[in-house]
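Lecture notes, unit on protein representations.

Consider one protein chain, 290 amino acids long.
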Amino acid sequence: MDAFSIALGDEVTDADDETFDLFSQGAALSNLGMLDAKAEVLEVCIADRDYTITQSPGILQSGRQQGTTGAAVWQTSIRLASWLALPKNVLFKDSILGPESVVLELGAGIAGLVAMFVAPKVRSYVATDQQHLLKLLQANIDQNTARVPRVTPRNGRRPSTERCANQNIKVLALDWEEDDVPKHLSVYGLGEGVDVVLASDCIFNYALIPPFVQACVEVCSLRKHDRDHGDSEWRPTVCLVAQQLRQSEVFEQFLNAFMKPFRVWRVPDGMISKDLGGGSGFAIHVGILR
């Protein structure tokens, strides 16, 4: 873990400076970041593999009280999945993730792209979101990880279904705005914590900041409890937050809130793909509970 934090470089110590640095690079995108809000089916290519993702424009446009943004495919999740697919990704290189790791994703949405790339490399991947999104999330994972005959596609790309099976992906309900997070994790057999918490584009407004940060704290505190009880093999949970840079004020308020319980680093350009690095309009931050 020390090697990982050293590799990440300087810790973020000032939210205002970090916000100015990111947003002054002039790449904040004018759009929200959805691939195509009106399409029912999208074809996505990541790491030379094709994925067919079914969306729900109906949920997205319904104005229902429960979250609707998870019903679409977002640029951030595609870029995060692409980065995690890199052979020399720092999380695997520095053994933050490995064959025995347990990963929890908050706000997974309906696509399941990050899960499909990480799951084959870890022991267990738990993708969570609100109940009304889970059926479509499970369907997309099943569709893109089912076994198919070995047929070479006409476009020369390898089929995504050759990539992995879905046996170690669990799709579970967790509403981090409303639910008792530790209780739910205990029921799901995760009461002793997880190795990594992933979140992709979970913060869209000020109201989401307090419950999201609190959920991250509660998940990561499960491992802190092990340390307090003298576990000699204790390793802290790493919290990884990927987001599109939309509103500087919302981002700065999130970072201020996140930095209170967490030590925070931005994944530097030398360790990240260009479409997530400086000037891309996206960023990934890593948090380790203080």
